[in-house]
Automatic annotation (TrEMBL):
Complete-protein stretch covered: 8 to 232 of 310
Domain of life, source organism: Bacteria
Keywords from the UniProt entry: ATP-binding, Nucleotide-binding, Transport
Source species of the chain: Nibribacter koreensis
Protein name listed in UniProt: ABC transporter ATP-binding protein
Gene Ontology MF terms in the entry: ATP binding
Length: 225
């Protein structure tokens, strides 16, 4: 099992906003919740971990990978579901997932078929596979996003505010899917919804104004709230 270690990470944007200030987090395998209000710095941290932007300072290690220096290695073992996950409306789920699988380097048709079938079943989209993504509900789109993020069997899955806009039934279904994934990797969930964390995450941190206010076992943290 892999471990994610974030040391002294800071980021100030060109407009002077300090989005991250000396972030230190030790993230064990399993479901980990990053809880904070809008503007707290969650997306900045998620994008930094996903190697999509550079911090001004600090270091990040995923197992023995130096995340800020070994970007290709990180990308091989990372799944990232961004807050705004765009899909091509006119393509079927099956076709789109197959296409992403090619991009992920699964070039053999037979293994691609096996992998995409497994993921469509895991995300409960197998019977929807011929439907065009444009007709998918918000919850179906998010589950499809997880299927894409899980291509290549990542050791770290990052999901940024995934439950925003889901109806209650879809939300439960989506969170259950994440918790299954969390059984054998690090799943980092960013959210402003306390229940997303309290219902699902073993460990958690609270972030506000770019600073970590608390890092704890969720049960202990909730008892002290
Ligand atoms: P960096 O310092 O990482 O290069 P910049 O401050 O140059 O970031 O901004 C990068 C992009 O984000 C720009 O296109 C900018 O318009 C946009 N941006 C600026 N302010 C915000 C904000 N508050 N929230 C989201 N995006 C923003
Ligand atoms: P959260 O995901 O918790 O809502 P963000 O990481 O998106 O927080 O934003 C943290 C702070 O940085 C906010 O004040 C936001 O306006 C600002 N910000 C985010 N992206 C940019 C950007 N590209 N350029 C300038 N400021 C930004």
């Amino acid at each position: 099992p892999i471990h994610l270690s974030i040391r002294n990470v800071s980021k100030t944007y060109a407009n002077g906003v300090q989005a991250l200030s000396h972030i230190n987090l030790e993230i064990p395998p399993g479901m980990y919740g990053l809880l904070g209000p809008n503007g707290a710095g969650k997306s900045t941290l998620m994008r930094t971990l996903a190697t999509l932007q550079e911090p001004d300072a600090g270091s990040i290690h995923l197992g023995d990978i130096d995340v800020l220096r070994q970007k290709e290695e990180v990308r091989q073992t990372l799944g990232y579901l961004p807050q705004e996950f765009g899909v091509y409306p006119k393509v079927s789920a099956e076709e789109m997932l197959d296409y992403f699988a090619v991009l992920k380097g699964i070039t053999q048709r037979a293994s691609r078929k096996e992998v995409t079938e497994g993921l469509l079943k895991q995300t409960n989209l197998w019977d929807k596979r011929k439907q065009k993504l444009g007709g998918f509900s918000g919850g179906m789109k998010q589950r499809f996003g997880v299927a894409v993020a899980l291509l290549g069997n990542p050791k770290l899955l990052i999901v940024d505010e995934p439950t925003a806009g889901l109806d209650p039934a879809e939300r439960v279904r989506f969170l259950n899917l994440l918790s299954e994934v969390g059984e054998n990797s690090v799943v980092l969930l960013s959210t402003h919804i306390v229940e997303d964390v309290s219902e699902l995450c073993t460990n958690m941190a609270i972030i506000n104004k770019g600073q970590i206010l608390l890092q704890a076992n969720t049960q202990e943290a909730v008892m002290n709230l």
